[in-house]
Amino acid sequence: RLYLQIYLTFLGVILLFAVLATVAWWSTRDQSDNAQLLHGIGGVLSELLPPHSNPERVQSVLERLGKQFDVRITLRTDDGELIGAYGKPLPP
User: Between vectors from CA 59 to CA 78 and to CA 69, what angle results, nearest 5°?
Assistant: First the structure.
């Protein structure tokens, strides 16, 4: 019985360490990496998408990308006007 208590205590300590390490990682991660990644993705998408003067083609490309990556996509003009979306449009 003593070995079982020691074993369960050891597992509890490992689990507690894993939870604390995860919380520390999430709270201290660098947000500038995410911003840089999103900026890069935006640049690639601007090259892939057709001009917004052709809304049917833009919508078909957004639907294809949204289905492939299983994400919601919203495309807006610089002043926030909705051009197209896959899924429920995201707020501006």
Answer: 95
